[in-house]
Each structure stands twice: as structure tokens, then as C-alpha cells.
Design goal:
Helices cover about 40% and strands about 10% of the residues. The protein is an alpha/beta fold. It has a single domain, classed as TIM Barrel (Alpha-Beta Barrel), CATH 3.20.20. Helix 9 packs parallel to helix 10. 5'-deoxyadenosine (5AD) binds next to loops.
């Protein structure tokens, strides 16, 4: 076995230089994917956790250069679901058998923290784990939402290259994003982060730094997706991020953080018709089906042609590869010996 892969597989530690070597070397890809798959099996098993995604508002005050729902995209038909609509969707998810709901929106300050807290405590009357993905808020807000019952929070760092971060996120504060992530950890959220693959000017060195940052944070979940340029954004002429490279960053993340939850992301499936299954066989153990109604979902276009999940088809495909849909909430099972 390649020496670096072997070291990562048994020690779960790599230097930046070793990570870059793995990212550069195309000849080790299959071996890397296989190693990540075997660690996935050993540490988190064959169950695939489904997280029902509810996109409850596409208003956003941010202007991320790559994102279709950025504030300056005036073509977006903006919507906000009411508290009752959000709770209703969560109930539907519960009735369908989902064990987790993810409430995701743009950075929309119209939902005051007390309103969010109320929505959360109402949903938490059901036997569901609840994940938030609503962007940067202050410590106090995160605390109130945690106390209302939120279990998890997703906030991708997007890139740890500060200069690139500042180019991609006008008026945003890179340090604050990191502070948010450490605050979430401190408050006891299962904390998810991740990065985009293929931002213009992004280097393999910076991707290695991203992976080391996941480890430094001791992230509980990592979502990695290739960039898919949106035609109504400043990055419209950029190239698609590389699917293979996204898969490699994901696989290395599994080697270094073997017990965490890693989704096969929608962006991967969007770029490759078999992307989800390939990701599930290269370290991933989570899928996030979108349960937002079709006529609303199409307005939440962070990138074009977002892939869907067909539940029956997914169930059959999982069976074919020896995996099952989990009937648990799928919290991170931390191995204390790590
Ligand atoms: N292509 C791929 N992923 C994107 N995201 C936003 N815009 C794009 C795009 N054009 C990702 C960001 C964000 C997540 C919700 O969607 O990483 O964190």
C-alpha cells in the first residue's frame, strides 16, 4: 500500500506536505478511495443516515461570489416559509420516517432568534434530531437556539485560504467565521463544516489546510462539494470543480477523522450521475434528501440543476452496494481511543 495512505489509515494523522502529495498523485486514487471505504465501514458501519433538508428561506444578505441566491442576484424570486409551514414540513419528514431534519436558509435576519427558537422547540416535540444551517450569528443567539433544542449546526468554512476567502466573500470576516465554528463546538452542537472544491485560484496546498482545519476543529460532520458555476453570479465563467478532487478531499478527511459523519453531497451527484454512490463507496455515510416542495425548491438555486433523491431508487441502489438506510438519529459515535 502507498506509505502515506497506510500511515493515514492507522494513525489518522498526516502533515500538510503528505496531504498535498496524495492530492497531486492521480495514480493512488483508487487505493485512497478503498482505504477510506474500509475505515468508513470499520468506524461508522454500513448504515446510511438520511437527513431531510428543508430550505425555508432564500433571502440572503451575503454576496458570496459563487452562490446563486447571493443578495445582488436580482433575478431570484425570494420566499420565506412561515413558522407553521416549516413545522408542517418537519412533521411530514417525521411521518415519512426521517430521523433528522435540517433547517437551511440564506443568511436571513428576518427570522429573529426567538422565532427560530420557537420553531425548534415545536419540532423537537417530535422524536427528531434537528440541524440548523442558517449562517453566522453571535454566541448568544447560538446559545438560545441550542437551548431551544437544536442538536447540530452546519457552517462550511468554504476555504481556509484567507485571501481567497476575502475575494469570494465581499464584506465577510474570515476570523468571525472561524469564531462561529469554535463557538458552536463550545456550545455542544455537533458541528459540521466543509469546503468548496475548485474555487478560482484555489491551490492543493490550501485544500490540505482545509483538511487540517477540519481536524483542528474536530468537526463532527464534513460536507465537501465541487463548485458548480451559477450563470447569474460573478463566477459564471468559472469551470466546474473537479469531481475526482472533491472525492479525494473527502476520502482523506475520512482517513484523518474516521468516526465522523460525511455526506455524499448533492453537488457531487449533480456533476456525476453516479456521484452519490461513488462518494458512499469512498468514505461517505450520509445523504441529505431535499424535502422542500418542488415549486419552492427551484427558487433555492445556489447552483443550477441540483440533483434530486428518489427514495425508492436510492433504497434499491444502497441494497446493491450492501448498505442500509439507518433507523437511528446517527449522532457521531466518538471513539475515545482516537
Ligand atoms: N456550487 C457548489 N456549491 C455551492 N454552494 C454555494 N454555491 C455553490 C455553487 N455555485 C455551497 C456552499 C454552501 C452550501 C450550502 O452550498 O459551500 O456552504
Amino acid at each position: 500500500m502507498n506509505k502515506i495512505i497506510e500511515k493515514a489509515k492507522f494513525e489518522h494523522i498526516l502533515s500538510k506536505d503528505e496531504i498535498v502529495q496524495l492530492l497531486q498523485d492521480e495514480s493512488i486514487n483508487q487505493e485512497l478511495f478503498k482505504a477510506a471505504d474500509s475505515l468508513r465501514k470499520e468506524f461508522v458501519g454500513d448504515e446510511v443516515h438520511l437527513r431531510a433538508l428543508i430550505e425555508f428561506s432564500n433571502f440572503c444578505h451575503c454576496n458570496c461570489l459563487y452562490c446563486g441566491i447571493r443578495a445582488e442576484n436580482l433575478c431570484v424570486d425570494r420566499y420565506r416559509l412561515s413558522s407553521d409551514q416549516i413545522i408542517q414540513l418537519a412533521r411530514q419528514a417525521y411521518d415519512f420516517g426521517y430521523k433528522t431534519v435540517v433547517l437551511q436558509s440564506g443568511e436571513d435576519l428576518a427570522y429573529k432568534v426567538d422565532e427560530m427558537a420557537q420553531i425548534i422547540s415545536e419540532i423537537k416535540k417530535l422524536d427528531l434530531a434537528l440541524t440548523l444551517s442558517i449562517g453566522e450569528r453571535n454566541f448568544e443567539d447560538y446559545k438560545i437556539l441550542k437551548e431551544a433544542g437544536a442538536d447540530r449546526f452546519l457552517l462550511r468554512i468554504e476555504t481556509t485560504d484567507k485571501d481567497l476567502y476575502m475575494k469570494m466573500h465581499p464584506n465577510a470576516d474570515f476570523e468571525n467565521r472561524k469564531i462561529c465554528l469554535f463557538n458552536l463546538k463550545k456550545l455542544g452542537y455537533e458541528t459540521g463544516t466543509g469546503c468548496l472544491i475548485g474555487l478560482p485560484g484555489q491551490s492543493l496546498e490550501s485544500l490540505a489546510d482545509d483538511i487540517l482545519f477540519f481536524k483542528e476543529l474536530d468537526a463532527d460532520m464534513i460536507g465537501i462539494g465541487p463548485l458548480i458555476p451559477h450563470p447569474q453570479t460573478p463566477l459564471k465563467n468559472a469551470e466546474n470543480g473537479s469531481f475526482e478532487l472533491a472525492l479525494k478531499v473527502m476520502a482523506i478527511t475520512r482517513l484523518l477523522l474516521p468516526d465522523i459523519n460525511i455526506p455524499a453531497t448533492t453537488a457531487m451527484e449533480t456533476l456525476n450521475p453516479n456521484g452519490r454512490i461513488m462518494a458512499l463507496q469512498s468514505g461517505a455515510n450520509v445523504i441529505m434528501p431535499n424535502i422542500t416542495a418542488e415549486d419552492i425548491r427551484c427558487k433555492y438555486e445556489i447552483y443550477p440543476n441540483k440533483a434530486n433523491v428518489n427514495y425508492k431508487q436510492l433504497e434499491a441502489k444502497l441494497k446493491q452496494i450492501g448498505r442500509q438506510i439507518s433507523s437511528t438519529k446517527g449522532y457521531r459515535k466518538v471513539r475515545r481511543s482516537l
